[in-house]
Design brief:
mainly alpha, 8 helices
């Protein structure tokens, strides 16, 4: 028969060799707020650009000074995911086809709506987080949107 100390030793060895079970508790209210704030900040990441370069390009495209301020304000709220699209355009007015949402590209938007890059950028921003809507737009007939096409 085993002595009491032997049983305790065997039990201790068994417990040391067994895999510990980690129990995760539900996040506290503070942890939820921190997680929500982080998600919100990520979702609100916006474009960064040199306003003077964009201002100059808008002037070249025929925008009036009062329109430029409105456009600059609008662009400062556009999703950061479109940064590479804007950067390519600012360098040499290249319309990047590398970025798409379910096949929807800047070129498709510009052709379908007969609009310029600046308006297409805003359109793309409105579809960026809604892939199903983007898919529907590709198949939809052109909308008679009046835009400045220069």
């Amino acid at each position: 028969m085993f002595k009491k100390t032997s049983v305790i030793l065997l039990l201790a060895v068994y417990m040391l060799n067994s895999v510990p079970v980690v129990c995760e508790s539900a996040p506290t209210d503070n942890e939820k707020k921190i997680q929500d704030n982080a998600k919100e900040k990520e979702a609100k990441a916006v474009l960064t650009f040199d306003k003077e370069i964009v201002r100059k390009m808008l002037l070249e495209d025929g925008y009036e000074e009062n329109e430029i301020e409105i456009e600059l304000n609008r662009f400062s709220k556009i999703n950061k995911k479109l940064q590479m699209v804007l950067d390519a355009y600012l360098i040499d007015r290249t319309i990047s086809s590398d970025f798409n949402v379910e096949g929807l590209t800047m070129k498709i938007i510009m052709e379908k709506y007969s609009c310029n890059f600046w308006n297409a950028l805003s359109f793309m921003d409105s579809y960026i987080d809604d892939p199903e809507r983007a898919k529907r737009l590709i198949d939809a007939p052109p909308f008679p949107y009046r835009s400045r096409q220069r």
